């Protein structure tokens, strides 16, 4: 089952015509990913400042399907497709009502903030991510 969260498209997320400005989507995605980790009891603040871990995105593929406009509520469904030793493959589908607005495939890699090299997911993080694991169909 995916992690889900809804976010309203605010005035500041749009261009002058009221259509979503695509960089705002990425900011919203970061918020949703952060909320997913918090949902299983591990905050990004804890990972970064106590465990000294970074969570950089190393690849992403975005497909925009139709515009969203000011006032729309975007429904994010984050599917965990694979939890590797240090990597995390996510597929997020963003919809307004029944219409898919955009999708993204994203790979995040756990890194050490001390040497910036990849590091294995801690057991508690791996267990939390596994709650949402849905391999690619």
Structural topology:
Elements lengths: L2 E6 L13 H18 L4 H7 L2 E2 L2 E8 L8 E11 L3 E10 L2 E11 L1 E2 L10 H8 L7
Antiparallel strand pairs: 1-4, 2-7, 3-6, 4-5, 5-6
Structure summary:
The protein has 137 residues and is of the alpha+beta class. The protein has three helices and seven strands. The two termini are 13 Å apart.
Write structural notes for this entry.
The structure is a single chain. The chain is an alpha+beta fold and 137 residues long. The chain contains 3 helices and 7 strands; from the N terminus they run βααββββββα. It has helices at 22-39, 44-50, 123-130, and strands spanning 3-8, 53-54, 57-64, 73-83, 87-96, 99-109, 111-112. The strands form 2 sheets. The chain has a 5-stranded antiparallel beta sheet. Strand 5 and strand 6 form a beta hairpin. The radius of gyration is 15 Å and the shape is globular.
């Amino acid at each position: 089952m995916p992690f889900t969260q809804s976010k309203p498209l605010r005035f500041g997320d749009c261009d002058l015509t009221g259509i979503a400005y695509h960089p705002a989507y990425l900011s919203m995605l970061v918020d949703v990913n952060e909320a997913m980790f918090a949902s299983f009891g591990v905050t990004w603040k804890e990972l970064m400042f106590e465990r000294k871990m970074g969570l950089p995105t190393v690849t992403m593929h975005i497909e925009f399907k139709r515009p969203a406009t000011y006032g729309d509520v975007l429904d994010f469904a984050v599917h965990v497709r694979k939890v590797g030793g240090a990597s995390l493959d996510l597929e997020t589908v963003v919809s307004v009502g029944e219409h898919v607005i955009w999708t993204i495939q994203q790979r995040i890699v756990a890194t050490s903030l001390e040497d910036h090299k990849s590091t294995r997911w801690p057991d508690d993080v791996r267990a939390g991510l596994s709650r949402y694991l849905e391999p690619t169909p």
